[in-house]
Design a protein that fits this description.
The structure holds two protein chains of two kinds. Chain A has eight helices and no strands. Chain A starts with a helix and ends with a helix. The mean pLDDT of chain A is 87. Chain B has one domain. Chain B contains eight helices and no strands. The chains are: A mainly alpha, B mainly alpha. Chains A and B meet through α1, α2, α5, α6 and α7 of A and α1, α2, α5, α6 and α7 of B.
């Protein structure tokens, strides 16, 4: 998909430049973009190293484990076939905690482990289970306590208070997460009940 | 809001360092290890950032971005998301690098503490690249039928976009 989107952006720009007569500035932008990309990454590099280092200390001092222990009971309620204190629940809550702390590197392997454990219990190996759907949706709605990347860029562009957006971010993420999980649950219910209803109807007819 | 914003980072860092010291963790060695991992992440995302900064830069310079903004502006009226932010909302679920370079463009054009800058910031902080998460997580275990995952994830994204504009108005006025 990315192939078409990326290609589309470039071809569309070229066509737009023909009609608007902006060919010179399009050309200039190509020449400058490489440099712009590097300067964008350089702006973020320092913070990514710093935060990676700080969060590694958090991980090694057991902070991730403490937070994840708080989240774990919530998870066994949210997921149908994930037992309280099971290895799956542990991997899940560690994954979400790592996301909360902005530990992208640590979060992905933990999430993949949770997926692998859910897949072991999955009767149909090519179809996602209800729990998997909720889990992937939770991962795609990023819950991050401290938005370091955003704050770094805000500082670079002269924000007087780069972190002031934090409460708004939390509220938005929470609403997004809620909407995603509710949708997942509702559709799982609808789709799971369908076959049963069909069977009930058929039985009704045969009588 | 300003006080909270100023306090949060130093407090979190001191708490973590303190916890590390109490637990007898070799904090500086740990720090170096984590920082090195951060550097590796940067190295890994660099190529895709270059590709997408070029594409977003071309869109902007050619006037193509203005066309897209105009095209999406009716949606902006319905959802309350400012039309200048709509391209960011569209790119956000698809491409992390694309969203990042679009975000930088918005900060550059309108400033970080403007209404638009704040809405874009909340949007960036409140979402993850949805399609990337779906591909990686299902791909790892060989799931082909993802059922209503994409629908639920996109509804979550959409909610966060609308909420970004709404929460910024709530906390800062517009």
């Amino acid at each position: 998909m990315m192939n078409y989107i990326w290609g589309g952006m470039i071809v569309f720009s070229f066509i737009a430049a023909i009609f608007s007569g902006n060919m010179q500035s399009l050309s200039d932008s190509v020449v400058n973009s490489g440099q712009d990309a590097i300067s964008l990454v350089i702006k973020l590099t320092g913070m990514m190293c710093l935060w990676g280092g700080i969060m590694k200390i958090a991980e090694k001092s057991g902070l991730t484990r403490v937070i994840s222990r708080f989240l774990s009971p919530l998870f066994s309620k949210l997921y149908k076939n994930v037992g309280r204190g099971s290895k799956t629940a542990e991997a899940m809550s560690m994954n979400i905690t790592a996301n909360l702390l902005g530990l992208g590197n640590a979060a992905t392997p933990l999430g993949l482990e949770a997926m692998r454990r859910m897949q072991e219990e999955n009767p149909d190996k090519t179809t996602a289970t209800e729990d998997m759907i909720v889990f992937v949706v939770m991962n795609s709605a990023a819950m991050r306590l401290i938005p370091t990347t955003v704050a770094t860029l805000r500082t670079q562009f002269g924000s007087a208070s780069p972190m002031e957006i934090m409460p708004a971010t939390w509220l938005s993420t929470a609403m997004s997460l809620l909407a995603g999980v509710i949708t997942a649950k509702i559709f799982s219910k609808l789709l799971n009940n369908k076959p049963r209803r069909v069977i009930a109807l058929k039985r009704g007819f045969s009588k | 809001m300003k006080v909270l914003g100023a306090v949060v980072l130093p407090v979190v860092i001191v708490l973590i360092i303190g916890a590390g010291l109490l637990r007898g963790v070799k904090i500086f060695d740990c720090f170096l290890e984590g920082a090195k991992e951060g550097l590796i992440t940067v190295k890994n995302i660099l190529p895709s950032i270059v590709g997408l900064v070029v594409a977003v830069g071309m869109l902007k310079a050619s006037g193509g971005l203005d066309i897209i903004v105009k095209f999406l502006s009716p949606l902006s009226g319905i959802t309350g998301i400012p039309e200048e932010i709509m391209p960011l909302a569209v790119l956000n679920p698809i491409s992390g690098g694309g969203a990042l370079s679009m975000y930088e463009l918005i900060l550059k054009d309108y400033g970080a503490d403007s209404y638009l800058g704040r809405v874009a910031s909340v949007m960036m902080g409140a979402t993850e690249t949805t399609f990337y998460a779906i591909t990686v997580y299902y791909g790892s275990v060989g799931i082909k039928k993802t059922r209503h995952t994409t629908l639920a994830a996109l509804i979550a994204d959409f909610t966060s976009f609308v909420a970004s504009a709404w929460t910024v108005r709530l906390f800062f006025g517009s």
